[in-house]
């Protein structure tokens, strides 16, 4: 059954105090020590954030931006600092090439392709994505052969549709088959709101993505392929005697930006995925649907400047430090500690003007045996009603199946709780109660 342990709710006012509760359908006493440790850790974080005078609270208020869909994320912690319509699907336009790059980078990493391999420019790629198309192009010559390293620069720096198509054909034989590889890679990365139909980003009503997915994709490329990511920071590239500048406006704003790219379609507006690094802190920004390139650039500057100025990183839990416990069914122990895959941190407003709530979600009791490293739960930290941080939690130890008498005892307990839950559900249905259990 779903179990939600609410670790902390902190009111917006520094004077309102800290309220900590633990709510879970579980055996009495199970996991109370770990829950208390989690409460105290996050309480300490919030109290530290509230050390700035009350008149500084306006600093945490996000800037006014016009772009209809946007997301600002801290790279290291995954903390969401700002979001608006982050799960609304739109056509990605040229942003599609970020997914194309991810699929190409995987082929290179697996040895299925080499940077100095040369690929042929087909008539399809030349006519549909090259000079005759009138779209953004690398201006690759028909039937010429071009090294993969140059095609990547033609696609990333020059936004060349022809370069993307040549890479797709070279890897999968045709663009449609390559789109299948893009969707496989998207699933591996964890993109849940995206579907890709081509490698270039040319208009297709079935090709859709979200601001949240684009942020995840950008972070994945930065983290997984740091040497390839450097191409996004190159400011120009010349091919076929035609010099073209990088189309990313962030590179010239003195914000520490070093990638990724922009896009435009009449149906989806002006889009951008960017990243910037200042004083060791990296932010990832996505804007979808701006009305003009000017609006896109202004909103990008506002959000990045606000993000770097307003937030600071606070540690929540060290590596291997228990965050909480999951109740077990039929195990030699009644519970198992939960830990993150690495240290867990969160970006919080420097002025401490935020309401933070943390919860552990898991379906339990969890049947034994349990293996160390098995994912059992998720830690979610909310900023107001929005999820600011979501981290998977894993079993910190092996727990074997318990003796027959313990399994029988656990089964009897679970049956009684189940019957009580069913009766409560009937009462709620009869009197029209609203569920307030989180």
From TrEMBL:
Residue span(s) of domain Peptidase S11 D-Ala-D-Ala carboxypeptidase A C-terminal: 311-401
SUPFAM superfamilies per record = beta-lactamase/transpeptidase-like, Penicillin-binding protein associated domain
The UniProt keywords, alphabetically, are:
Carboxypeptidase, Cell shape, Cell wall biogenesis/degradation, Hydrolase, Peptidoglycan synthesis, Protease, Signal
| InterPro entries the UniProt entry points to | Beta-lactam/transpept-like, Peniciliin-bd_prot_C_sf, Peptidase_S11, Peptidase_S11_C, Peptidase_S11_C_sf, Peptidase_S11_N
Its source organism is Ancylobacter crimeensis
Q: Specify the protein name.
A: serine-type D-Ala-D-Ala carboxypeptidase
GO MF term (any one)? carboxypeptidase activity
The transmembrane residues are none
The family annotation for this protein states: Belongs to the peptidase S11 family.
Main function: Removes C-terminal D-alanyl residues from sugar-peptide cell wall precursors.
Question: Which reaction(s) does its UniProt entry say it catalyses?
Answer: Preferential cleavage: (Ac)2-L-Lys-D-Ala-|-D-Ala. Also transpeptidation of peptidyl-alanyl moieties that are N-acyl substituents of D-alanine
Biochemical pathway: Cell wall biogenesis; peptidoglycan biosynthesis
Keyword Hydrolase in record: yes
Documented EC number(s) = 3.4.16.4
Q: What is the lineage of its organism?
A: Bacteria, Pseudomonadati, Pseudomonadota, Alphaproteobacteria, Hyphomicrobiales
């Amino acid at each position: 059954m779903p179990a939600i342990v609410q670790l902390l709710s902190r009111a917006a006012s520094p004077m309102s105090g800290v309220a900590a509760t633990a709510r879970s359908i579980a055996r009495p006493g199970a996991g109370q020590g770990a829950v208390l440790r989690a409460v105290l850790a996050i309480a300490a974080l919030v109290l530290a954030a509230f050390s700035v005078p009350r008149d500084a609270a306006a600093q945490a208020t996000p800037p006014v931006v016009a772009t209809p869909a946007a997301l600002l994320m801290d790279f290291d912690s995954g903390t969401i600092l700002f979001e608006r319509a982050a799960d609304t699907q739109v056509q990605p336009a040229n942003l599609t090439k970020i997914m194309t790059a991810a699929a190409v980078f995987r082929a290179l990493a697996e040895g299925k392709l080499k940077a100095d391999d040369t690929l042929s420019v087909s008539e399809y790629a030349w006519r549909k994505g090259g000079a005759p198309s009138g779209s953004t192009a690398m201006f690759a010559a028909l039937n010429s052969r071009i090294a993969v390293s140059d095609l990547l620069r033609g696609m990333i720096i020059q936004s060349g549709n022809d370069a993307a198509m040549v890479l797709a054909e070279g890897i999968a034989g045709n663009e449609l088959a390559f789109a299948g590889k893009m969707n496989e890679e998207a699933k591996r990365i964890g993109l849940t709101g995206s579907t890709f139909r081509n490698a270039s980003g040319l208009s297709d009503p079935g090709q859709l993505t979200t601001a949240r997915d684009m942020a995840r994709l950008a972070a994945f490329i930065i983290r997984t392929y740091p040497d390839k990511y450097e191409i996004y920071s190159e400011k120009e590239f010349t091919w076929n005697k035609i010099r073209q500048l990088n189309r990313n406006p962030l590179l010239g704003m003195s914000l520490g930006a070093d990638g990724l790219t922009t896009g435009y379609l009449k149906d989806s507006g002006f889009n951008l995925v960017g990243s910037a690094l200042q004083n060791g802190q990296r932010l990832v920004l996505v804007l979808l649907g701006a009305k003009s390139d000017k609006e896109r650039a202004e909103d990008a500057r506002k959000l990045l400047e606000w993000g770097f100025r307003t937030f600071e990183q606070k540690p929540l839990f060290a590596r291997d430090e228990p965050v909480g416990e999951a109740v077990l069914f039929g195990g030699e122990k009644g519970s198992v500690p939960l830990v993150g895959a690495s240290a867990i941190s969160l970006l919080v407003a420097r002025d401490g003007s935020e309401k933070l709530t943390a919860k552990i979600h898991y379906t339990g009791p969890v049947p034994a045996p349990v293996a160390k490293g098995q994912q059992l739960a998720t830690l979610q930290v909310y900023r107001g009603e929005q999820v600011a941080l979501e981290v998977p939690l894993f079993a910190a130890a092996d727990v074997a199946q318990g003796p027959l008498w313990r399994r029988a005892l656990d089964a009897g307990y679970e049956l009684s709780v189940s019957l009580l839950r069913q009766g409560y559900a009937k009462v709620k249905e009869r009197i029209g109660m609203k569920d307030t259990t989180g």
